[in-house]
Amino acid sequence: MKIAYLINQYPKVSHSFIRREILALERQGFEVQRIALRGWGEQLPDQDDRQEQERTRYVLRQGPWALLAPTLRVLLRAPVRFIGALRLVFKMARDSDRSLPYHLIYFAEACRIMPWLCEFGAQRVHAHFGTNSAEVTMLTHALGGPPYSFTVHGPDEFMRPMGLDEKIHRSDFVVAISSFGRSQLYLRSRYADWPKVKVVHCGLEQSFFEVSGGPAAATQRLVCVGRLSEAKGQLLLIEAVARLAAKGIRCELVLAGDGPMRSELEKLIEKHGLGTQIRITGWISGSEVRGEILAARALVLPSFAEGLPVVIMEAMALRRPVLTTYIAGIPELVHSGETGWLFAAGSVDELASAMEDCLSRPLEDLQRMGDASYNRVIARHSIDNEAGKLAELFRAPSYPARP
What we know:
Elements: E1 2-9, H1 16-27, E2 31-38, H2 47-54, E3 56-58, H3 68-77, H4 79-94, H5 100-120, E4 124-128, H6 132-142, E5 148-152, H7 156-159, H8 164-170, E6 173-176, H9 179-187, E7 197-199, H10 206-210, E8 221-225, H11 234-246, E9 252-256, H12 262-271, E10 278-282, H13 286-294, E11 298-301, H14 310-317, E12 322-325, E13 340-343, H15 348-360, H16 363-380, H17 383-395
Parallel strand pairs: 1-2, 1-4, 2-3, 4-5, 5-6, 6-7, 8-9, 8-11, 9-10, 11-12, 12-13
Helix pairs in contact: 1-17, 3-4, 3-5, 4-5, 5-6, 11-12, 11-15, 14-16
């Protein structure tokens, strides 16, 4: 079966879960065409991502003017469908926080993709994220393309008006990555469409589970992996380290990642005099991330907004407990006292308390938590199992086209 995948930017350092899903589907016999709007010039530290970059077709690689000719061809060949899809564009603009010109560009991108889908023989199209990639996919279907589906991760899709109701209504199915995500899609769709909302978790390769996490690390180091951004709560994490230092509790912290808040974080580290205790790595490869997790006592992720972070799954697969906030889908995976610590988002007091408890725990407790983490994540987040669920949905008969 031939499936086209459409992603806004691919590959991307923070989107390794999409690569894993595509490769797992190919192992199950699917042919997958990778299409992305952008990402051809991205500097990627991971060799696997660089290989995916070479296999991906990019809609905007030749500039926006390259969209004009395909749009005119669709108009001439299928004027009735063209006008119908154009009406849908105006409807989406009314239901979105983005103005009409953006949606007209999405329409032109759909026209650009149409011949690629025909040439490949795509039987279905699947998008990741409920944002513009899902709209472009919906518009290709309105223009006469294959049935479509999409995966919603959150939290962005739940925080902005973007016509999710219409995208869900016209789709064959929509995937949420957690039960919490499913509830948010119920909230933003018609009751009649609820049966189309499915839960398929993001997953890890078998090789992740085969890596020996080894015994709990005796170091006083914690690691936070993620983009340096407001949503990840790293500023709060630095404040918590400063509080522990004021109590005479030494804590090493590694911030593995990079992003727009790096300079602000560096200034706060300098303000508190924590330069010898906190290290920022910048972007690093997947194997380097794995090494940082293994060298730490636990993963800490004080996020303010999330879907269900893949890095939590990775740490648990490496038998490391997790300190994180009880938001979104996280409590479905992390159980406080069993596989780690859960604390209130935005509370530096609870964050510092959880860190202090983790740093003071005997290694036997950490090992017990690490083993429980491994057992839980392997049962819920094997990529081949989760891709198998997705494969069943792809192979199911398509619904009739929706008006």
